[in-house]
Amino acid sequence: MNITYLIKKDIEHTLIDIGYKNFCKPIIVSSKKTKLGHYQVNNLIKIANILKLDVYELAKKIILHIKKKNIYKKITFSQPGFINIFFCNHWISDQLETIFTSSRLGINRVVSKNIIIDYSSPNIAKEMHVGHLRSTIIGDVTVRALNFLGHNVIRANHIGDWGTQFGMLIAYLEKINVLKNYNLSLKELESYYCKAKKKYDIDKKFAEKSRKYVVKLQNGDQYCYSIWKKLVSITMLENYKIYNRLNVTLKKIHTIGESFYNTMLPDLITDLKNKKIAVQKNGVTIVFLKEFKNRLGQAMGVVIQKQDTGFLYSTIEIACLKYRYEKLCADRIIYYTDSRQSQHLIQAWTIAKKANYIPSHLLLEHHIFGMMLSKNKRPFKTRDGNNIKLKALLDEAIDRAINLIKKKKPHLPKKKLISLAEIIGISAVKYSDLSKNRNTNYVFNWDEMLSFEGNTAPYIQYAYTRISSIIKKSIIPIHQLKEKIILKKEIEITLAIKILEFEEIILLISQKGTPHILCKYLYQLATNFSHFYENCSILFSKKINTYKSRLKLSILTAKTLKKGLNILGIKIVKKM
Ligand code: ARG
């Protein structure tokens, strides 16, 4: 049930019915304390100002009119300018009933759109590091939420598998003679990559050879192509292991890397030149964008082809946009990429629009994210200043979880210990990241994320196992829970209203790609349940109707927690 939408529409209709036209959209939020209202209108002062009315007078009129609807139990005004809305218990129960009997928690499918999520996108010949964590897991939550709502989601892992670096790598691997029988690990490959780069900068001959190999590769030379393919496969094999451990839905079929667009680039350049969007200057092909200014205040130039005819990251980006619109019929594209790439993306979007490759109504969004910081608020790095590898981070999470579980359950058999620790450890890392607003930096803190208190994965996972065990102990099977939920105590109403809020949370995630809202919601839901459990007996209720009703509320809470965790890509455990 999308309650905010329902109230918003009611307020808007009421305002129109009582004779007003030009008002701003009412802002509706769920109230912190259900005693004071289930939901509230938050911007009444602003609406009154626009309509040049006294807030109290306006509130009175709205309340008088809207009360005619029988879903509201009570509507009140509170200073300095809020309208508080209480729903009738029978209406709440009816909504809960719909959720209870639905496999989709009563959430309707929306009109399906083709939405491309460009996320994770690591580079070849390098191990994934903590910098890739946010893009990978936040992007995956948006994928899951949009999928659940019924959209056609296209995952695009735009891996960095093309460019000059492959020339140096091939030249270097050839030079050190490892190409005959190369069972290289990704770690080794990355170290060769670093060495190749150093050599490229100081050794002219080597640099020349590298460039020759790039051109050969771009032209489809068999020798270079087969080595390149192997390098991609070594890297991606490791990355899929990481995705798997992270419970992220990216698979091989979702990889559409930079190389995929290679054959489209020559025509693209010709077309941009024909359309007079790109020009030739000092041997390079360049697009001048007056929308962007360089340091001298002149139109900024975006190079799309170099002197040696090599293409650039931007060229590929434009081709990619064209492909995504023409071939994949995208209605919306969301990029989960470092905020430093904002300008690059906007420039590519601008060029693609100028060339009519994409229409102006295509929704393009760059969902940026902040950095992970260490305790001293500096970028989260190893002691020697290098990026922390994602694999090492996940290994440490599991080690820490093993120690934690061992303290609580010293006799747990080793196999069970490890499999539990894998879930607890990795969920903790994921959840601690997802629960922070993606727009800001956050401090990475092991102790906090593995705590059983607060807005953490262990807290929510534990809450879920506890509710499940209550449900399991019940003597009444689910199919016998036919009667509607009876809401008497304030605590029951609070929990019920929270359950109803789930749909609007999922809709918000689908619009904004902000998983922290869902984490906060699940935390509140789990806390509300815990208050309910402490104050209302469930399995010890004397009356059978109360027993059934409370059991039903527990089942609904469990269902919602489970779906919420599923959308976050966090696994549940049977026992903790
Ligand atoms: N491979 C790039 C990097 O590691 C990210 C690619 C993001 N996606 C895109 N369409 N540019 O920085």
UniProtKB/TrEMBL annotation:
EC number(s) recorded for this UniProt protein: 6.1.1.19
InterPro entries from the UniProt entry: aa-tRNA-synth_I_CS, Arg-tRNA-ligase, Arg-tRNA-synth_N, Arg-tRNA-synth_N_sf, ArgRS_core, DALR_anticod-bd, Rossmann-like_a/b/a_fold, tRNAsynth_Ia_anticodon-bd
Segments carrying motif 'HIGH' region: 122-132
CC terms in the record's Gene Ontology section: cytoplasm
Pfam (any one): DALR_1
This protein's UniProt keywords: Aminoacyl-tRNA synthetase, ATP-binding, Cytoplasm, Ligase, Nucleotide-binding, Protein biosynthesis
Subcellular location: Cytoplasm
Region forming the signal peptide: none
Domain spans labelled Arginyl tRNA synthetase N-terminal: 1-87
Keyword Metal-binding found: no
Keyword Ion transport carried by entry: no
One GO term (biological process): arginyl-tRNA aminoacylation
Protein origin, superkingdom: Bacteria
GO molecular function: arginine-tRNA ligase activity; ATP binding
Record field: catalytic activity: tRNA(Arg) + L-arginine + ATP = L-arginyl-tRNA(Arg) + AMP + diphosphate
Domain DALR anticodon binding: 460-576
Family indicated by similarity: Belongs to the class-I aminoacyl-tRNA synthetase family.
SUBUNIT field: Monomer.
Name listed for the protein in its UniProt record: Arginine--tRNA ligase
Organism: Buchnera aphidicola str. Ua (Uroleucon ambrosiae)
High-level lineage: Bacteria, Pseudomonadati, Pseudomonadota, Gammaproteobacteria, Enterobacterales
